[in-house]
Amino acid sequence: MKKKIAKSKLKDKSKYLDEDVLKALEHDIDTRLEDEIKLQEGCLKKKIDQLQKLSIDLDTVKNMLLTRYNARMVKNNFLQAG
Fold this sequence. Notes:
The protein has 82 residues and is mainly alpha-helical. It has 2 helices and no strands. It has helices at 2-13, 19-81.
């Protein structure tokens, strides 16, 4: 989306620019947008890694709570039987 907007603005001004300058500006726009995309991808990958770690931590807590619950149930059943 940003690329289309930037290039359309550039085309509006292309009447006043030399062909070499126009190509250099288009290349600069492409390079900047690619860099921005890579930066955003890196941020997203970090967020995904954080969420996966959180998911693992939550699974660990869930398993610990289930283990405690099961131990209490066994203890209660043993006390009721005895």
